[in-house]
Amino acid sequence: MPERKPRKDAARNREAVLAAADALFARRESPEDVTMADVAAAAGVGKGTLFRAFGDRAGLLRALYEARMEPVRQAVEAGPPPLGPATPPRDRVPALLDAVLCFKLDNRRLALALEEGGSGSPYRAEHYERWHGLLRAVLEQVPGLTDSGFTAHALLAAVRADLVEHLAGDEHIPREAMRAQLADFVTGVLASSPREG
């Protein structure tokens, strides 16, 4: 029984940290303004607890991103159309990209911090590889499409966090207009491959 208390404390601390980080990213103008010290203070935990649980700032960002992305991930893996696996590929690809765009619009600062943070190529980040792999697999089911890997990269470039931030923040493009523009772009890409029948 004594062993359970640290696990409950760790789980409670983790939830408190994620909630604190979530609130801080929502309030601050720039993602760089949120430090590990800020998060620890807001969560009421020591910095050591924070670093033990998440490793570093990038680890905290990934954990927060994954927690927010969980409902989308579940819909993609086992949900009904248009996101779920039973959806025809020409319908699923636009729905997947729309889901990514909406997620990034709803989580602009977090998505920007995650994509800009860390070292190395953003294309090697776990979340990017997961989306690219999923899109590539769906695109492979589109008849006549010859390079699903490149096409997946090109489509994901349209929903990069820095582009979403530029369009929403600097150009003030409304959400629904951006979604419609993305849908038109994806439809155009998919139209370049012949339909069956």
Averaged pLDDT:
88
Task: Classify the secondary structure makeup into a structural class.
Answer: mainly alpha
N-to-C order of helices and strands: HHHHHHHHHH
For the sheet with most strands, the description reads: none
Q: Tell me the strand percentage band.
A: under 5%
Helix content: over 70%
Helix tally? 10
Determine the N-to-C terminus distance.
Answer: 64 Å
Question: How much is the radius of gyration in Å?
Answer: 19 Å
Assembly classification: single chain
Poorly predicted sequence stretches spanning 5 or more consecutive residues: none
Shape category: elongated
DNA-binding region: 35-54
Protein name: TetR/AcrR family transcriptional regulator
InterPro entries: Homeodomain-like_sf (IPR009057), HTH-type_TetR-like_transc_reg (IPR050109), HTH_TetR (IPR001647), Tet_transcr_reg_TetR-rel_C_sf (IPR036271)
Organism: Streptomyces plicatus
Can you describe what's shown?
The chain has 197 residues and is mostly helical. The chain has helices at residues 4-27, 36-43, 47-54, 57-78, 89-106, 108-116, 126-139, 148-157, 161-170, 175-191. The longest helix is centred in the N-terminal third of the chain and has 24 residues, at 4-27. The radius of gyration is 19 Å and the shape is elongated. It starts with a helix and ends in a 6-residue tail after the last helix.
